[in-house]
Amino acid sequence: MAAELPGRLPTFKPEEIALAHDFIRSGLIKGEVRAGIPLETERSRRVLELNPAAGFWDRYPWMLKVDLVVETPAEVWIVELSSRIQMVTVGQILTYAGLYEEQYRPGKPIRLAVVARRGAPEVQAVLERQGVAVFIMPEV
């Protein structure tokens, strides 16, 4: 049986939740799935500078969130969900990868994937040249 999407996902749009479920059920990447993984940013750190007593939830709104992280025995996948691939997707997934590696230090190779309902051939080509796997999941 395929893994299910874990937990509450307040930062996900309904179409992203459906896309995540479809992707997980597809079994394209098998492993432990976590969703909405927070990444500290300059803005979230600034909250702490301004208020040293600020806790995680005070900083959370200023953090970036990785849609899905799938950990396999050999690697960690950072997965971005999108209704359609756009140019901004390239920068987004590469930024997430750098911050995730810096902040979580997984000790395994990091792989990147974009999961979308609709592609954009020119952007997909750029992603693939950067080593990013692209999965187009049709509506079911």
Structural descriptors:
five-stranded mixed beta sheet; alpha/beta; globular; Trna Endonuclease, Chain: A, domain 1; 5 helices
Protein model, in words:
α4 links the parallel β3 and β4. The protein is built from 5 helices and 5 strands. 38% of the residues lie in helices and 28% in strands. The protein has 140 residues and is of the alpha/beta class. It has one domain: Trna Endonuclease, Chain: A, domain 1 (3-Layer(aba) Sandwich). The two termini are 18 Å apart. The mean pLDDT is 91. A 5-stranded mixed sheet has the order 1-2-3-4-5, with helices on both faces.
Counting structural domains, the number is 1
Overall pLDDT metric = 91
Tally the helices. 5
* Distance, first to last CA: 18 Å
Number of strands: 5
Rounded to an integer in angstroms, the radius of gyration calculated over CA atoms is 15 Å
The name of the CATH architecture is 3-Layer(aba) Sandwich
Q: Helicity, in percent?
A: 25-40%
Indicate the CATH class: Alpha Beta
The backbone outline, from C-alpha atoms, is globular
**Fraction in beta strands:** 25-35%
Derived from helix and strand composition plus strand pairing, the structural class reads alpha/beta
Q: Kindly report the spatial arrangement of strands forming the biggest sheet.
A: 1-2-3-4-5
Low-pLDDT windows of residues: none
Question: What's the order of the H and E elements?
Answer: HEHHEEHEHE
Indicate the CATH topology. Answer: Trna Endonuclease, Chain: A, domain 1
Write a short abstract of this structure.
The chain is α/β, with parallel strands linked by helices. The chain has helices spanning 14-26, 42-50, 56-59, 87-104, 121-129; strands at residues 32-39, 64-71, 76-84, 110-118, 132-136.
